[in-house]
Amino acid sequence: MSENQLNMEAQFEQLLTFLQEEEMDAFREIFLELHVYEQGQFYQSLAVDLRQRLYTYLSPKEMADMFDVIEEDTEGIEDYIQEMQPSYVADMLSEMYTDNAVDMLMQLRKGDQAKYLSLMAPEDASEIKDLLHYEDDTAGSIMATEYVAIVANQTVRSAMYLLKNEAKVAETIYYVYVVDTENHLVGVISLRDLIINEDDIMISDIMSGRVISVKVGDDQEDIAKTFRDYDFLAVPVTDYDEHLLGIVTVDDIIDVIDDEAAADYSGLAGVNVEEVSENPVKAASKRLPWLITLLFLGMSTATLISHFEALLSEASILAVFISLITGTAGNAGTQSLAVAVRRIATKEDDKHSFFHLIYSEVLTGLITGAITGLTIFIIVGLWKHNFMLGFVIGMAMLCAITVANIAGSLIPMLMDRLGFDPAVASGPFITTLSDLTSVLIYFNIASIFMSYFLHQ
Fold first, then answer.
1. Domain containing residue 186: CATH number
2. Three-state secondary structure call for residue 109
3. Which end of the chain has less neighbouring CB within 10 Å, N or C?
4. What confidence category does residue 116 fall into, taking pLDDT thresholds of 50, 70 and 90?
5. Which own/partner contact pairs does 442-447 have at CB distance under 8 Å and 24+ positions apart?
6. Range of the domain at 317
7. pLDDT tens-digit profile of 225-234?
8. How much is the pLDDT for 158?
């Protein structure tokens, strides 16, 4: 454990003592010196009765600063909100950045949302209501409306005066956006440029007219790619007439990347990877639909094997290698699926990408299948002293891996073209599908060459 962690644990123990002994002044002195993230960790570690006491020690503004940092990663937001007085909640939401307040309200029931909005100042409530109307996972749903905008026909001196007055409420001031008299986004200027230029220089003379922005309806994944490509700390959001509406900041994008990664991994695994805190019954209810679906698909494989029962009775040695072929093909299909989903998530629009990916995976399947098939051909030939049997196993391995590679790349690509999340083509689904095709390939090849390897 690091020295910082040890120090933090010691502070937490001291804070807990002050809270239990109702020493408010001593508690506040130490608590408010902590980073807001550390404040949030301490808050979430408390029992309900101690959290109730904490609400009397901290102002809504102090609580808002803490929730501005932890709201996205905090489970049980609704429970925390229900512990507070409604007026306290309304004041806290008013003090939070608008996008974070919206994120918190979205976790509450519609009736509770309306209750807290009705208790807020009309101006604050109006800004939050505007953001609540945007579709989930779009720029509008994650943007902040606390930003600094200046007009092109003003001087550096007047711009700095405006910046000093609005900096306290702005989410970031590293970029200052320039608008015209009708609030159209026309440029951007950095805080550094404002500082180093003379007071009487016009903003229009030093601003950059080439400003990268996103539309209010753009998908959050596309916005994350913009941040990645340009290394932005913030990006402006406009409507379709180029009116400046808000900004998306890098901290929101980090949350988006985390959420999207969790969603993709959940799809690949066929399970919600964020269910670790759920009770077993609830977790099982979410896993069962996939498992039952895959069970029926697996029954198809069992039925197919029973169809070749006569073949197995003549050459029972074939049964030894069923799991070897299906398992290897399933692994190859899952690898291909992971690569395909990654390419879909990171590539730019390219009309040739679909065929290029399929061509690439066919070649990859042939190469890996040929090498794997040759390896198992030699092993089985030497092990069973029957190189014709080794040939059958090796050829089945080659074909099964190639088909699994094609399926692992083709299915997510088709789903992407149809507008579905390609990660839903989960690893378990591809594996089970590979089992079915591998068995079909294996026994058909064995049927063709059976008379040869039985007599060796």
1. 3.10.580.10
2. coil
3. N
4. very high
5. 442/318, 442/321, 442/322, 442/325, 442/396, 442/400, 443/304, 443/305, 443/308, 443/311, 443/318, 445/392, 445/395, 445/396, 445/399, 446/311, 446/315, 446/318, 446/392, 446/396, 447/308, 447/311
6. 280-453
7. 889 889 888 9
8. 94
